[in-house]
Specification:
Chain lengths: 325, 487
């Protein structure tokens, strides 16, 4: 933010009463299942040995633009459950000013953390990468500090992409394993398909709580590497089921045991752990917060907030499409 | 502060939590480009409707019981977010415009939303702009910005005023303040004191006499306030018989005959009147009717045959002519029929004296007038008697007992707190202010604070904290547990 040399701030024109657009997607690449063999249902029994549950989530949002670049903000949240009470720590919000001039500095920061960026990424992607960086940093902190815990990630364990370097991801999982913790990664959306159907559709008729183990996934596809075993988790009654990745290097029995511990330790609504849900809620930006951050930037850096004419609206009126429509 | 919206004569102004603006404050919206100003009064302060607020509050509400934690916010962005959350919308009423520092009652001008500056203006500088007569000031108390607020005695002169508010808010206190304010300028004031609250006007809080002692005359009917029949004209005694004692028409005609015969004989004692009725050759029912009224007069204790102990209104007003004064008619412990008799006598004599120019004018303060003022007197007092020089100030905690047309004709209203919406609805019928202002501000007035509406404040409603008076407090409610409270 120190490099702001602009005189105005053009606020993001996404309607503020709409949910804020976020760019941390569960960006799982499309992987073909080469030798689909079986889908195995694993019934689960909740175990009563209560384990600490920790969840991490990060959000980023576009705040607006200046004469020289884009403004975005990120925020992370860690939520943990202790003796039937949830505690949280929110980190941020941190506003960023991304310009052509400071792109190099940002690339350098990414490279230091093994986030390789090829070509000329658009600014929206840089925003997502900054979010990924904070997320990995928080995940590292949790892996290093938690012991014998169930660590919940939002997303998958697919490594080798820009926001999830293999070395970094492997290190996070290894540290957690060494401290007898297990990482469970829940994906709200998955692009993985089996026989033309979405993976999670197979859990519709399954009797919860259960896991569906999908056999036959390749471990890697080009630079992309699956660091976890892929399951479909249907942990409670209801319409929802999720892709669940569990650290591949953890023995299968321990992995299944961790999910059973989660069943015994955590409140689950629509198969989704409450701790992770809260982490998402606490990191997400509301419209008020976006206005507050815009005010902070305008106040701190003497920017004047201006609203440029909306070209789509000018040209097409109510027929303009998209966020600016 | 930023101008947000204008609808009719209402204005919405977006305000920051740091802005020290409350209900009742005046704001000036100044458009320097055209050298015009809009004068507005804040009648309500609301939270600004910001998108996403509900989500924000829902998220925060989860943190109260089972969920708790902390925020690591090294840049201090959250203070700006809280600022947005706490943003306020000031609902204002336009009271006028100023063009080249000249006031106009006009709300049609629309200032620039982007260029206008908004500032708070103190009540006194606002009233200074308004101008008007500053002679004979009566200090009412202080405004919200702690500056003294004066009205002038001219604002009560020839006017109809209403002091209203719920019980215990300070109506009688303000009424006393106005009474003494008028006496300071040598005015003659008559107070119809239902609960004996004004009998201590001549005493200081510590009990001794005060500067008004010699000018406060407390008249207690049956005690030091007795009248003789000889002082009374036929018209006054007829008003008493007809309106206070419900004498039917036939009996009234017979009474007139009896009265005339007494006049011819020059006999005006109660005994003579009784004897004349006894000897009257009329229908037995008429005689019974006359006798029953006669005994009511005798039993009231208000009439005497002793001319020395009888009070003459003319002489009483003579006392107040030079330095002004208050006649407090103490109606405490007086039965309702006797009260009516006293009132008919007092008002009848007042009108007579005013009609004969024996007194210049009288300020009448009537507490809970509905309890003793007959129907026909209301409009008479408000319309006809005003021209004779009887200027009325009604004091009541039941605003619906005063007719709507009286509110419409009221020049000033001193409005204390009301929580009941029906009461506020009644007061809001006053022609000099919009109902939204009345309803919004009066509901939240603290005790001893009143909203001045109308001519006294040049039609700029003003909230004022009524000042204290060094007079003996009377009319306090007798408490059963008073001793244990004091202990």
């Amino acid at each position: 933010m120190k490099n702001i040399e602009s005189s105005y701030l053009q606020p993001n024109q996404t309607p503020l009463n709409q949910p804020a657009t976020e760019y941390i997607a569960d960006a799982t690449p499309i992987m073909k299942i080469q030798h689909p063999s079986t889908i195995k249902t694993i019934p689960l029994e909740p175990t009563l040995d209560e384990k600490p549950v920790v969840a991490v989530d990060v959000s980023s949002i576009r705040i607006g633009e200046t004469e020289t670049g884009e403004l975005c903000a990120i925020r992370g949240a860690i939520v943990w459950k202790e003796k039937n009470r949830y505690k949280y720590q929110r980190i941020g919000p941190f506003p960023f000013h991304i310009t052509e001039q400071n792109k190099k500095e940002i690339y350098k920061l990414f490279r230091n953390h093994h986030f390789e960026i090829s070509g000329a990424p658009n600014i929206a992607n840089i925003q997502a990468r900054i979010g990924n960086l904070l997320e990995r940093w928080l995940q590292l902190g949790i892996s290093c500090s938690a012991y014998g815990a169930i660590i919940l990630w939002d997303g998958s364990m697919t490594a080798g992409m820009v926001g999830s370097p293999v070395d970094e991801m492997s290190r996070l999982l290894e540290i957690a394993r060494n401290r007898l913790s297990i990482v469970l990664a829940f994906s709200k959306n998955t692009t993985l398909r089996f026989s033309g159907h979405k993976l999670t559709d197979y859990a519709e008729k399954a009797e919860p709580p259960c896991l569906l183990q999908i056999n036959g996934f390749p471990l890697s596809s080009g630079p992309v590497l699956l660091l976890g075993d892929v399951y479909v988790a249907k942990l409670t009654r209801g319409v929802c089921s999720f892709r669940l990745d569990i650290d591949r290097k953890v023995p299968r029995e321990r992995a299944i045991g961790a999910v059973q511990s989660l069943l015994g330790s955590e409140l689950l609504i629509q198969s989704y752990p409450e701790t992770l849900r809260l982490a998402h809620i606490f990191s997400t930006f509301t419209a008020i917060e976006v206005i507050g951050i815009q005010r902070f930037i305008a106040h701190q850096y003497g920017l004047k907030i201006v609203t440029r004419p909306n070209v789509r609206r000018l040209l097409f009126g109510p027929f303009g499409k998209g966020a600016e429509g | 502060m930023r101008l947000y919206k204008k609808e009719g004569n209402s204005l919405q102004i977006l305000s920051s939590p740091k802005d020290d603006v409350e209900k009742g404050d005046y704001l000036i919206v100044e458009d320097a480009m055209v050298n015009r100003k809009l004068i507005t009064q804040v009648i309500d302060v609301q939270f600004a409707s910001v998108p996403g607020l509900l989500e924000e509050l829902l998220r925060d509400s989860t943190t109260e019981e089972q969920i708790y934690g902390e925020n690591f916010d090294p840049l201090g962005v959250s203070s700006h977010i809280n600022h947005i959350q706490d943003a306020r919308m000031l609902i204002c009423k336009i009271r006028g415009t100023m063009l080249n520092d000249k006031l106009r009652v006009n709300s049609s001008w629309l200032p620039s939303r982007s260029k206008s500056g908004i500032t708070k203006i103190s009540i006194n500088s606002l009233l200074a702009h308004v101008g008007g007569n500053k002679d004979l000031p009566i200090n009412i108390g202080e405004t919200k910005d702690a500056s003294p607020l004066n009205i002038t005695a001219h604002d009560l002169d020839g006017r109809l005023n209403i002091i209203t508010g719920k019980k215990g808010t300070g109506k009688s206190h303000l009424s006393k303040l106005l009474v003494l304010g008028l006496v300071d300028y040598k005015a003659t004031v008559v107070v119809l004191d239902l609960n004996g609250e004004y009998t201590g006007l001549g005493f200081s809080a510590k009990g001794g006499g005060n500067e008004y002692s010699s000018r406060v005359h407390v008249l207690t009917p049956g005690a030091n306030f007795k009248v003789s029949l000889s002082q009374m004209g036929l018209s006054v005694i007829l008003k008493i018989l007809i309106h206070a004692l419900d004498l039917p028409g036939t009996s009234t005609r017979e009474f007139k005959r009896v009265w005339k015969s007494l006049c011819q004989q020059g006999k005006f004692t109660l005994e003579d009147l009784g004897e004349a009725i006894r000897k009257c050759s009329c229908n037995i029912h008429v005689r019974d009717a006359l006798f029953s009224r006669y005994y009511s007069l005798v039993n009231s204790g208000f009439f005497t045959d002793n001319e020395e102990s009888a009070i003459s209104f003319e002489k009483l007003f003579e006392k107040t002519k030079k330095d002004g004064g208050v006649l407090v008619i103490n109606l405490k412990d007086v039965s309702s029929v006797d009260r009516q008799i006293v009132l008919e006598y007092t008002l009848g004599n007042l009108v007579r004296l005013l009609g004969q120019w024996k007194i210049k004018s009288v300020f009448l303060f009537a507490e809970e007038a509905h309890l003793y003022l007959r129907e026909t007197y209301w409009e008479d007092i408000v319309t006809r008697m005003r021209h004779f020089g009887l200027f009325t100030n009604f004091v009541t905690n039941q605003p619906d007992t005063i007719k709507e047309n009286i509110y419409r004709q009221a020049d000033s209203i001193f409005l204390f707190n009301f929580t009941n919406e029906r009461d506020l609805e009644t007061v809001s019928k006053a022609a000099r202010v919009d109902s939204e202002t009345v309803k919004s501000i009066a509901q939240e007035l603290p005790p001893h604070h009143c909203l001045l509406i109308g001519r006294a404040v040049k039609d700029f409603p003003v909230m004022v904290k009524v000042r204290a008076l060094d007079i003996k407090t009377m009319g306090q409610t007798r408490l059963f547990f008073a001793d244990s409270v004091n202990a």
